[in-house]
Design brief:
The chain is mostly helical. The radius of gyration is 19 Å and the shape is extended. It comes from Pedobacter jeongneungensis. This is Addiction module component.
Length: 76
């Protein structure tokens, strides 16, 4: 499917729905600007997010199952 065909399919679905929540979420998604949101956060939070993204790029991640296991052991 080409990008133009995908746009048409999405537009058809948007015109066919009366789901206000879906339309509102779609509107937010289409108007989302990550840079503006990040710039509004305190500097220490911005730095933490950037550090986390860099760690992810470097493969320094903990698998979901391991996180679940650790939390389960901690809270049970």
């Amino acid at each position: 499917m080409s990008i133009e065909e995908l746009k048409i399919e999405i537009a058809k679905k948007v015109f066919e729905t009366d789901d206000e929540n879906l339309l509102s979420e779609l509107d937010m998604l289409l108007n989302y600007n990550e840079k503006v949101v990040l710039d509004e956060l305190p500097k220490h939070v911005q730095e933490g997010i950037k550090r986390g993204l860099q760690q992810a790029k470097e493969g320094k991640l903990i698998p979901y199952d391991e996180v679940k296991k650790r939390l389960s052991e901690k809270w049970h």
